[in-house]
Amino acid sequence: MANLKQDGYSAEERLPMLEKDEEQGVQLPIDGGASRKLNYKWTFILVVLNCTMFLVTFADVAFRTFRSNNPSTDGYATDLNPLLKQTSYYSPLLDRVSVPLKTKSINDTLYNRSVYAQPPGLQVDEAWKQLTRLGLTYITAADVTHIGKDPSLTVHAPDNPDAHLMMPLVTHQLHCLNGIRKNLFREYYYPDASMLSPLHEDHLLHCLDVVREALQCAAPTELITYNWMRDVDIPQPDFTYNAVCRDWDGLKGWMDANEVDPMRTIAVWRREGGEREVDEPWQWTRIREEQERQREAMME
């Protein structure tokens, strides 16, 4: 059997010819099973490489898209608050104070009212006064640019052109909520309606929109479930829930400790001359003209 011939040659006769063909660089057929194994191996490697390149490209595109559609993380100098920096527009405060996230169990049921939801009184007013302090502080011209504004338009300290005045957005939102609250008790806070500013109603409507915008921007995704309540025929919402909150106490403590006194800044600062200005609302012009007509009528 060893001498069985194929194509007229025995195995012994074919061996020298195969060696000669290899020396001359002729490609010889190899075992079909080995060929398939080799092809599978390289196919697998190519698929893995292609998948890797696709994932890297996809991640790069996704990151660039996120950066183009979301707040910039450029300009930060510390590693504080990495998650908040990715999910918030640029704020230098995130480099200055640690704001950890905390899970809280919240009870917003009808009669579980904090001091902020009590009828007017000295204790309630003091609590709201502390809650709504402006939190004025300074940021640099570079910070102003990073938040998307023009440093040539923002007010800076008279003795330091790189100390631009600002207040955290949350304090304005709380100020607006307090304005709406006080209007619920108008007889207590504004017993003489004739003393109200001509802008009082405009201010309230502005504040209503500020609170609405804040809620829609935050858009909490926590859930309210429903319960059956004794002696009540329809399902009732259960306003207790768990939420992940920013550490308000830590942030508020930092703001209070670093607050610039309003009575030494916006209350007394005046133009030095040459400042760029923004236009006032046309409604203010109308109100001022009406006030002037009223004064003239009273003098006649």
UniProtKB/TrEMBL annotation:
Transmembrane segments: 42-63
Gene Ontology biological-process annotations: mycotoxin biosynthetic process
Keyword set includes Iron-sulfur: no
Keywords (A to Z) from UniProt: Membrane, Transmembrane, Transmembrane helix
Family membership noted in the UniProt record: Belongs to the ustYa family.
Record's protein name: Tat pathway signal sequence
Lineage, highest ranks first: Eukaryota, Fungi, Dikarya, Ascomycota, Pezizomycotina
